[in-house]
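ENTRY TYPE: paired fold submission
RECORD: A
CONTENT: sequence, then structure tokens
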Amino acid sequence: MIGATISHYHVIEKLGGGGMGVVYKAEDLKLKRLVALKFLPPDLTSDLRSKERFAHEAQAASALEHPGICTVHDIGETGEGQTFIVMAYYDGETLKRKLTNGRLKVEQALEIAAQIADGLAKAHENGIVHRDIKPANIMISRDGSVKILDFGLAKLAGETKLTRTGTTVGTLMYMAPEQVQGQEVDARAYIWALGVLLQEMITGVAPFRGEHEGALLYEIISAEPPQMADVVPDLEPELQQLVSKCLEKNPEERYQSAKDVSVDCRRIKREMKAIRQLTGTYPHSGRIENVSPGKGYRFLKERRGRYNRIWMLLTAFFFVTTVVLLAIREAPVERDEKSIAIPVEIHPPENGKFHFVGARPGPIALSPDGGHIAFLASTKEREKKCLWIKALDEEKSWPLDNTEDATYPFWSYDGKQIAFFAGAKLKRIDIVSRVVTEVCDAEFGLGGSWNQMGTIIFAPSSSDPIMRVSENGGNPEPLLSLDDSKYEIYHQFPLFLPDGNHFLFLARTTFTKVKPGPDTVYVSSLDRRERKALIASTTNVAYSNGCLLYLTHNGTLVAAKFNLETLSIEGEPVPIATPQLNLMTGGAVFTVSRSSLLAYQESPAVSGSRLIVYDRSGYELSVPGDQADYWDVRFSPDAKKIAYSIAGEKSLDIWIRDLASGEKRSVAFGASPERLVVWSPNGKEVLYMALKTESHEIYRKSVVEGTTEVLVPTTHDYMKQPFDWSRDGKFVAFVTAARIVDPRNQCDIWILPMTGDKKPVPLVNGAPNEWDPRFSPDSKWIAYCSGESGQEEIYVSRFPGPWNPEPISHEGGRGRYGGRAPRWAKGGSEIFYLSSDNKLMVAQMKLVGATPQVVARKTLFQTRARSISGAYDVSADGAKIIINTRDEEQIDTPVKLIVNWTERLRKK
């Protein structure tokens, strides 16, 4: 953007940005003046609601002519459809930046507050309410004049609301009590915000600063603000009275107009100046103690007495409440039906992205008190994904060293440590000392929980039951067993209930339903009593405040009352949110704390993908076909055609396209899903998987139009997935899933001889999953992907033997990088693969003797390949790479926080 010319504006530098726009300094080439251009963020350009709100910002602000309000010159749109507003450029700094140097002088604070109040009064006269008064939206120019910025959250009187039902816009720290409780607000709510600003300018500290969102909410609604005189000695009592009147909980007792605030600010400022001239002194308040103490000090003393009595009553109230809550063992508190849920958003670290989904996810985890949140993320500066932590009352988040490739973080009961899985180990880190300690072995890790007695329960892999271990380490022992009668294959997502004895967990049955029995959430206990089925579910659940939270079949997160005595759900569930679902592990991206705080991430918008042909440097050579929902793609042996599967109206279909002419025709088309197409060595036939009966079978078909497909007999398992056909034509490598013989044994590699008795034999048949087998061009080696090491790795071995698989997608020692989707090229001297962070890699191979050797590894370029088995392919000469590419780099949707989500449950 910098250096570009938009319309007749030349962009000079970036000034900053926020949730509703990015601002650049620019030169108006026609009028030869400096301006500020505000653009809608790229990830919101297709959001009509945001565009409409953005246009209203310009409309609202341009209708106002006042020295205290930012001047709007114009509104426009780039050739790419990006909307922007042209505003006056002011040489100065925001109040937020100014406050980083400490509190302001009282007279300066009063002048700034008066100018803000003048601007708000003008806006209110025109029926416009700013709705987000905070230090970042106040600009102070070098001459001391104040400008109110960003009317992006403005609401024109009588206009339809642009916010979602049940949400509140603005910044929580500056919201009035009626605003956070979801009530109708008027200009008096922003007089409250002005009072918060004034106290923050005078003391350097905002009056309401709860340690976490729930505590902050309580302070705004129920607590009195601290006295400014505790920070600023000898403060003018009338100034305390002014701020206190702005911060009255009841808007009827507050200032009724911003103009009145402005008048009082300037009156107090004049009096302070007169006294300073009279006495020659200038303490913090500008007034010494022996001048006119009377009425103001009596008022302050009376207020302090009232505050002390209130705090005594509140202390007694919370003592009684705590006893009652303990007695009823966290039963939900019935409150008024009007929701006071307040969505607050958390974004990835600067220049970074979240890692909530995929094969090795790091889902969000709220601390028990709701004060912190842990998650997995990476940045440009810290490319290796690791565990991050954020205090909810701070803007920045912080990476935790020695937590690379962490997955499934969960907190200790006291919130002082975080457990996670990494390097085939269960580990824990102290959030103060940052010391990492290994607890025990854990092959893969699929969730865990930590009780108040120091016991950890966890799911170690995709083939084991729940295990238990001490927080101090030791050998883990099975806590449960897999129920063969229900065809359970593994357990996942254990979660302790408040007593630290009972726990919830998800039992996975054969995921392809070769045998009857749905996945089920159970409750059991550490004493191994008989477990009890609660609900049929395919994802994680949570418990908080007497409620069980779980996903319905349509992806809605609901909450239902849960009786801890009977261990049963009571009453009808109530919808809460719609979190993203990790399709690879089944985990929904949400978490709850014990303090009525919910965090979740919604699914990002899906815009489809494109098939793009690249050279080895990442240069785009061609784009065969239009944007669509592509799945798999394969080059023909001569690389002149591609075969691919694409989502149609009702199913997946397979097509072949000539890369030179662009001509395409269907190979497998119908109501059943067909995918994972494999070319024969001569390019005259294809194999593919289709679901035409009660199981997924492999079919063989000529590419000549009008021919009939033929079933290829293999095993009796539910799913058979073809991956490769050896160049000599003798063997087909396929993968079974949901085996009849052992339903728990998923994703094993089999070899089907294409001559002789054609009886399939297992190549890799064990507990770890193996998939994506690929024959070398001379058919003497085979590469495949496995989860044996605890993460995806590429292995190579002699074919058909001797069997001695060697991992090739990691460096020596303990430094592992991971890899998936191996592809041979250049006669077997190269193997391409995708790294765990979706970079295209190539390993130079030396295939001599019984053990393959990696001569060198190289990163070619960053891809946006879809996370599916057939996401890309490489031509035989290694010169061309075709990738099923997400159409745009996916932008992380923010994590949303909902305070007091329990208010959404209706009284039953």
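RECORD: B
CONTENT: sequence, then structure tokens
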Amino acid sequence: MQCPRKYLCVISAFFALIVAARAQDKQFEGKRINAIEYTPSQTLDPGDLTRVQPLHVGGLLHASDVADAIDRFFATGRYEDIRVEARADGAGVIVLFVTIPAYFVGGINVEGKVVQPPNRGQVSTSAQFALGSGFREEDLQPAMDSITNLMKANGLYEAQIRSELERDEHAQQVFITLTVTEGKRAKYSMPVLEGQSKLPDSTIVRATGWRVPIVHWWKHVTDARTRQGVQSVQSRLEGQDRLTAKVQLKNLEYDPQRRRVTPTLEIAAGPKIQVKATEAKVSRRVLKRYVPVFQQRDVYDDLLVEGKRNLQDYFQSQGYYDVTVDYRVRPVKDDVEVIEYVISKGERSKLVRLNIAGNKYFRTDAIRERMFMAPAAFNLRRGRYSEAFRRKDEENIKNLYQANGFRDVKVNSTVDTDYQGKNGQVAVTVTITEGPQWLVDKLTVNGVVQENAKELLSRLASGMGQPFAEVNLAADRELVLTRYFTEGFPGANFKAEWRPSGTPNHVEVVYNITEGTRKFVRDVVTSGLTTTRQGLIDRNITMKPGDPLSPIEETEIQKRFYDLGIFSRVDTAIQNPDGDEDHKYVLYNFQEANRYTLSIGLGAQVARFGTPSSSNVSAAAGSTGFSPQISADISRLNFLGLGHTVSLRGMYSSIEKRAAINYSQPRFQNVEGRNLSYTLLFDNTLNVRTFSSKREEASVQLTQKFSKTLTGIIRASYRRVSVGNVVIPTLLVPQLLQPVRIGILNANFAQDRRDNAGDPHRGIYNTADIGIAGRFFGSQRSFGRVLLRNATYYPLTKSIVLARQTEFGVITPFSAPPGLSEQESVPLPERFFGGGADSLRAFPYNQAGPRDIGTPVVAGGTPSAPTGFPLGGNALFFNNVELRVPLIGENIQGVLFHDMGNVFSRIGNVSFRFKQKDLQDFDYTVHAVGFGIRYKTPVGPIRGDLAYSINPPSFNGFNGTPQQLLQCNPSMPNPSLPYCTPSRQSIGHIQFFFSIGQTF
């Protein structure tokens, strides 16, 4: 066995010779070993020590055994030096191993004032110390030099770096602390320009961005700014079509007296490159996309040929199947080099038929799903065809068959350019010659000793009677090795062989597995913690001493730490990875994230929504408005070192003000996916014309993620709700106006199988929210509440999606207080309100459902006139259907939609009637159709919807002031008060909404 370092082998051989020389005088050779001692104390795991130590108490001492012991100890990688001594002990001998332990990198900590750039992570990375690798003090100076160069690249030429080492004798680790003293950052000065830029020097300097415009102050030096400046000069030249321009930073010269840096740029502008298309009109956008000269910024034949091929495929995909493309490069003239692509488009055709013949094993639909070619359809006016698509489809079909045992399959395609004698119509026929299917007659697995062979065999793809394919052998290899790596066999090897059996097209497969030596976890060592409590770390480490050393489990633990959201970096490694040890330390080094975060958001809504006004009761349906919105979120991460988060959230707009304090406790009781949170909330909402809603709430919520798609929530809330700015005389009743305490327990379940929550194309989304409020929870009102939602998404084609959503809700009051009906016992803020961009686009925001129709006798004896203001309801039904289609390019999408539904007074009044009976009937279904546009952005699609309400409700409203309204008595008409006559009003047919995100 070889030593890890040559000089160590020399040392071990030298001491072996000494022992041998002593043995020659028969003083120790062959003597019985009475004791084996180590100084300092032994650092190997007891299991490893037993394996590598050939000497044992009671045995006889031989020089060859001593040399073998030295080699084995060195092979573990845990020793810098070993010396073996022996001394007489009566008739026997005592053997003493004198060792100098090796040390390994346990972590790097960067201290001092580090003002970005560079950040602390960049400083530690530039030191190039790998966690768990061997450490030598002579490696410190190159690391310090590397950090110094990083500082200089960022203008910190006066920076000083000091290193300190802390050793952990138990795990043989070295912790490196780098203390940085930055000094002042240098500024740029006028760069030196070499070569031919073919641009004025002032233009080059302006392009670098190293100097502030107008005032001409030089900026501070940073590595990113330097690289960006060079790139900007390059881009400026490319903007003048100098695609072969080269700009290089030759050097940075620092003047310590002035604390200025002078960059030297070497510029070779090159000629202007003009890429043109002749004999066919091609936009510059298309040329830049398909001719790689623009991306590679160079001109050579391979790129020009690739551009020729790309343009040919592009025109074929546009229906010009007979297109021919060639190119020519004209000599440079007047500083211009012209590249011409000669394009002969030919006649435009349409792929009207795509035939697949010869397939018996696979259905035609299964094959078509894997093909790029497609005949003309609603969204493909000319079909989709090109020579590249045809070759790729042949390859895909061939791979499909070969993966299922058809080793001799052949796939060919023919093109009929005059299908059925019609010029411009193309038909493609793909002919499949399947050939025989090869099957596995016998599978033999050799070498499985420590694993469960039966369970392993049951998961292999190449079992007896299964199709034989090379991809199945590769899949089995990955499965077996992954299994062995997971169980602590990093040296496992897999070799597959096959040979024909006695039956034609049948094979025998043999897997030879070499398990290797199993590795175990000696211990898990953590470092780098400052605020975080060790108990939180220990609860998340599922790998214990004595467990198999699984790299997969090691990575899963690392992922779990990242999921806590309190660490900016978590490094993990196996200590001494190359050493011959069976028991190894697993290391985790943490870098804690900034504990405070601040985020600010801006938004707006443009739509028809209402705001309660005590001075205007004449516009019950609201009016078109613009509502800007600003939000702020301040969070304190890792509170008390427990991994908990305290956050303060606020939102302010013209229709809503909200503030909340939240305390979040992730992984409650150390259960994955279980989170507990406590919330204090204040909310003042003005988005309903009838009243303003104020809510002061305290709640506790337990969230449990049962699976990847299913989440459950239990929430207990206690809130005080009140109304203000009430403009309906009917509601001017103390019992309806006084604040109400609501104690409610909610259970919520969500099943999310969408492929993309922000912009889904397939899948389902179901939610159920069930709650009950009652006196047993300290509530002054008692009711049950259920809100169900189901949404599905169907991809009709690759880019067309049919989306639908159905929402149903019901509130059932019980034990109403004396003097209130069950309908009135549900406080206004707790009722269902609907209408708007996210629910029912037949209405403005929150304008659906029952309305104030007045009353001949108000509590107290005063009649009131109708106002038509929305009152909310105790039941709702919404159904939305959208057809989402591509409109312009990849980022603009069009939507055709139909919305139907309403908010109803109670569950018994839910009706699918199309027509309104009279001006006091609101329990019917309202329909709307419309068109919308979605523009994709990184934060979600920006949405604009234009809806036409087919059968909006009409109602009696009031055209006077609130004071005039109080003077009106429906039971005693007064001709001298013309404003007391109810005015017929209605919801407008046209509704417009502007917001962010898909409707559902």
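NOTES ON RECORD B: The two ends are 66 Å apart (CA to CA). Residues 1-25, 857-861 have pLDDT under 50 and may be disordered.
STATUS: closed
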